[in-house]
Amino acid sequence: MGIVRNGLLLVLVLIIECNGVPRFANYIQDHMVLQRAPQRAIVWGYGDAGKLTILRMNNKIYRTISSLEVANEVGESIWSVTLDPVSEEGPFDIQVLQPLANGTLVTITIHDVLFGDVWLCSGQSNMQFTVDMMFNATEEIQNAGNFSKIRLFTTSLIPSASPVEELLGINLNWSAASPKTVGGPSWNYMSAVCWLYGRMIHQSLNGRPIGLIATSWGGTPIEFWMPPKALQDCNDTTSKNLPIQQPYNELFQDVPVNHSNLFNSMIYPFTRTVIYGSIWYQGEANSGNPTYACKFAKMIQYWRQIWNNRTNGITDIQFPFGFVQLSTSTNNSAVVGGFPMLRWQQTFNIGYVPNDVVPKVFMAVALDLRDDPNNIHPRTKLDVGYRLSRSGLAVAYGQKVEFQGPIVQNVYYNVEGTTINITYTAVSDIEIRNPDGFEVCCHDSQCSNDAIYVPATITSKSGLTITLTLDRRCFGKPVYSLRYLWRETPCPFKQAAIYSATDSNLPSPPYMKLFY
């Protein structure tokens, strides 16, 4: 089993009295956001088995019978109420009533509940990376109180060998955005990428309430977050030693973690609630893993299926899923390493998203956001939030906004020539910021050797087409491979070669092509 570091100062929330008194599930709380219309939100909790359960909200009354099955070790059963679609944002109080064995009617209430869009944010350290650690943190934290309709929630870092219905711990209960809740302790709350994405979406949607669930753990590989069936589909049926190298809490203890353990404890509990979508920033721990494309696709597929099934078809079977393509690693631009291929695999070996392999997936390119000396944890999260939110607005919300950098449409190469022409799409014009970043291999089967690639320099541009001039070492030889930005840290800050000419913060993603 892998070893991960876990905080000692956790807010444990499974203190349960087995006395038949109804209660809400431990993440159904005051100040939360439930999913707005046209979807129907689900409110659930625990109580005695087979009891009439009444829910009141906004002058409506709902009735259900709690399950006859015992759901936990203290003998409680689950009740669940599916609300009608709610278009008003609120705030609302939600009351639940259930009779005790002696006939007493017990009422429990949650207050200040908003209806908006619920986004779940997960991954490893660059998602766990908190607002207080980013560039412009002071301004971001000071302004957080202007966004009180954004509600925040952060889980604790506790694994489980089997799926659990409730969270095993909570670091930040549902709270309105404020300097205190956005600017919490480092590596604790609030996730910078999660916050920035949600804040920018909120502003673009005219102040719509947004619920942000941060559930991430630094240093963790994708296998920890995958349901078992997803692992099986990728022929990964054995547990492996996957040591986590860095602690992401000030006080920590060793905790054994294995495949699926974080899905079980930090994702599965939320699959009873309706969400709008999810964003993901992970992959550093899987650098060099040739199975990532399969595992990423299958993780998304099974998350969607499980959410759809456990919310009785309400959560979209193809809910929007956004991710951040890996940023930088070392501070040395000469290192190829494992990041370039992992970035390619994040796009399911296509080079861009959305594509037809996995629908309704969007991304933010981040490999040009170098931050020396922070290397693998760049503080340039504002740019990540901007790029990811633009993609989310386009793919998740259908807005007509520019959200991608230039995407390669066609590559033309004459074997007897000395140039390669590349035509782009997805933008109206391209900006060439510098002539470097492309390289070719003209050594046939030896192209797996990074050392034999030579530069191919941009020498001209015509509309959406650029021309590369080959290095003299490739004159008279066939070109077998072309690649772009194929380095762990390929360029200085925002100095990649190709950007959109109409949005200078949208770079072209890394690219590769085999000619034979």
Keywords:
16% helix; seven-stranded antiparallel beta sheet; SIAE; 25 strands; Immunoglobulin-like; Rossmann fold; alpha+beta; 9 helices; 516 residues; eleven-stranded mixed beta sheet
Walk me through this protein's architecture.
Keywords: Hydrolase, Signal. Residues 1-20 form the signal peptide. GO terms for molecular function: sialate O-acetylesterase activity. This is Sialate O-acetylesterase domain-containing protein. Residues 117-381 form the Sialate O-acetylesterase domain. This protein is α+β, with helices and mostly antiparallel strands and 516 residues long. The protein has three domains: 15-113, Immunoglobulins (Immunoglobulin-like, Sandwich); 115-323 and 370-378, 3-Layer(aba) Sandwich (Rossmann fold), CATH 3.40.50; 324-369 and 379-391 and 402-516, no CATH class. 16% of the residues lie in helices and 29% in strands. It contains nine helices and 25 strands. The chain has helices at residues 125-128, 137-142, 179-182, 192-204, 228-233, 261-267, 292-310, 339-346, 381-395, and strands at residues 2-7, 23-24, 33-35, 42-47, 52-57, 60-65, 77-82, 92-99, 105-123, 150-155, 170-176, 210-216, 252-257, 277-281, 321-324, 361-364, 407-413, 419-425, 430-432, 438-441, 454-462, 465-470, 481-484, 498-500, 511-514. Strands 3, 5, 6, 8, 9, 10, 11, 12, 14, 15 and 16 form an eleven-stranded mixed β-sheet that branches. The chain has a seven-stranded antiparallel β-sheet with strand order 17-18-22-21-20-23-25, with no helix packed on it. Strand 17 (407-413) and strand 18 (419-425) form a beta hairpin. Helix 7 packs parallel to helix 8. The chain is elongated, with a radius of gyration of 25 Å. The relative contact order is 0.12. Residues 1-18 have low confidence and may be disordered.
